[in-house]
Design brief:
Layout (H helix, E strand, L loop, with lengths): L2 H10 L21 H7 L7 E6 L7 E7 L2 E10 L2 E3 L9 H10 L15 E2 L14 H66 L3 H69 L4 H22 L5 H7 L7 H16 L25 H8 L6 E6 L8 E9 L1 E10 L2 E3 L9 H8 L17 E2 L5
Parallel strand pairs: 1-5, 6-10
Antiparallel strand pairs: 1-2, 2-3, 3-4, 6-7, 7-8, 8-9
Amino acid sequence: MSWQQECYADVNDGNQGPPATLEECEWYWGKISREDVTQKLKDTPDGAFLVRDASRVPGEYTLTLRKGGVNKRIRILHNAGRYGFSEPLTFTSVMELVDNYRQHSLAHYNPKLDVRLLYAVSRFMQKDDDDEEGNEDLLQKLTKTNEELDETSRQYNKLSTEFTTASANAQQFRLKLNGISQIVEILLEQIKLSEQVQAQQHDRSDKLKLNQNCTLIKTKVSQLRQTSLEFKTRLEKATHDSKLLDRQMNNVKPEIMRLERAQKQLMMFLNQKGLTNEEVHTRLAQQRELSRKSNEGSGNYDDRSEKAHSVFEDLYLSRNEVEKIRQEAQQQARPQHVAGKHGKPHEDKTTWFVGGIGRQEAAAMLQGKRDGTFLVRSRTAKQGETHTHTIDIFFKSMKHIKIFRERSGYGFSHPFNFPTLQELVLHYSEETLKEHNPNLPTTLAYPVHAPY
């Protein structure tokens, strides 16, 4: 069976959701021999992998990974419902373990294995030596994958634009409510002072003027409170909309990642069949031209397909291109943070950024602080790693959140769409962290060095 055939399940299974069980995972082969594994990984690139049942210990598994042109076998341990390569076992399932090392290098486990699980050797495609897919079939699948990825990315960008608009509206309502609250407080002080002066005033005419002025101020306070109620209602709606859109964006992310993975695999298959990136580009351009002429002749031509393909002219770098385009769209839609606009200490990076200190020192700084107090520290990432910073936050106990940095920006998970750490901190000073960690129903409320 060819490497191309074995991996095609990831490309063709577009209508399937994420696997719910281990048996549904394309990379899980169950009880197969070491010899079979060797054959299936033959001539595969670094990062190709599969998982099988361990031959000696029931309930355990073996991950076989291609690195340096040879197969590396790693035992997956299992104890008390937890999985991992070594103690302590931290993953709740084999699927969670594989998903983690698809995003992060195995150098965390073994410095000599500086590679991620990039290419799943899929068991879903059965052997059929007489039905090897030709270049034209692969090119058609690549064309379809590009179109689906472009459409899904447009859907994500639309949601992202709506999300940033709703978030900006919510922030504006918060600012307005804060301003009204301050004005009402000042007016109430004026009412109190006016009533004190009235009590001491003996001239009937002056006393009447003071009473009229006090009545006007009270009317203004009543109007402001009514306006405040209206803004609170609108704030609740904007907050609800932003949370709903955020969930919808998170639902689209896995499909974008699946299509990007499929796109990369198809490009690799075509390279293995002898086509260079330039040749693939030329062949796709020819296909598009034939399709355009055919559709024009039938009166069904739609230039959206042409526009979709223009995004992916360099298919080898298509993932980077998609990320760049998505980042540009989000940057245009995102409200810019202006110094002093939020009126928060978070705007001063020195109130929460503490440099490259260790976890113990960070814990000591947060000891005894109120829930929601946080700091951000940097770390030296190893080659291939994207985990560059960590948020330490006290909420009932010490908790830690990894910050990753990709070309598109910073974030906790894909997409990494905050251009700076400060934008990430400002965003989560308003939005709860619960979406990323159910045990953290709080915002980044109090910078550790802020004068609270």
